Amino acid sequence: MRLGSPFLVCVAAAMSSAFVISPPHMWSKLILTHHWPSTFCSMEHCHPNISYWTLHGLWPDKGIDCNSSWHFNSSQIEDLLPDMMKSWPDLLNPSSSGFWKYEWHKHGTCAAKAESLNSQHKYFSKALELYHKLDLNSILVKFEITPSEKYYTFSQIERVIESFYGVKPKIQCVHPSQNADVQILGQIEICFDPDFNLVDCEKQLTWVEFTKPGWDSPMGAGKPSGFSVCDHDTPVYYPPLS
Ligand SMILES: *[C@@H]1O[C@H](CO)[C@@H](O)[C@H](O)[C@H]1NC(C)=O
Ligand SMILES: *[C@@H]1O[C@H](CO)[C@@H](O)[C@H](O)[C@H]1NC(C)=O
Ligand SMILES: *[C@@H]1O[C@H](CO)[C@@H](O)[C@H](O)[C@H]1NC(C)=O
Question: Average of pLDDT values for 59-76?
């Protein structure tokens, strides 16, 4: 059969339309991750001057570094920069765009497999939009979960988030040592489906976390003092700015 035969054209058309509807390796969930600057900086030895939850990233549940030739270019998100600096600051180096570049390469280029996120402007503006829509900072304050020298129980915090949003978050703590009698609140993840509806996050570690060195796990993979899912029975410290 020659390449131009009607049969082959037809199969190729069917295959390419199937590809458009359901691309292989497509992610099925987005994880919007917030981190608490005081906790992050206690691990990384930075000097936090921010006392609100900031964006860590918007991560698809599948894929990292999906397109290394798609370079971060901050002039494509120029209009977003004031909000980026406030809501998604690089806590290690506040005047740098290095964190955004890192997140774009690692996660944004994978998120971009969906048409709704297939540009840097779409990706970063959607992350900011979801962050503002959730408004986690106000919700925690409203339900009296505020930084404090007294400890919370884990279920106090979990209950507020779960009952307000109606989905299961994933809440991560720093465990200062194996048998510490306190854990430090560090990250709150809230998940979305590809249409940006809220969905439950997985309780177990996601594939993304197993494979992320550097920024996403500040102390390096496998070290006992990194972020991990909070224990149910250990008191939770939600540290104020020191
Ligand atoms: C925190 O410090 C950085 C760098 O010194 C500064 O650019 C930023 O505006 C400060 N943020 C707040 C909320 O004070
Ligand atoms: C990777 O990004 C480049 C630059 O934006 C683009 O031209 C190319 O089509 C992308 N490749 C894939 C596989 O998406
Ligand atoms: C970055 O984006 C701007 C605006 O779209 C464009 O003019 C410029 O050429 C891009 N820079 C690079 C290095 O691609």
Answer: 96
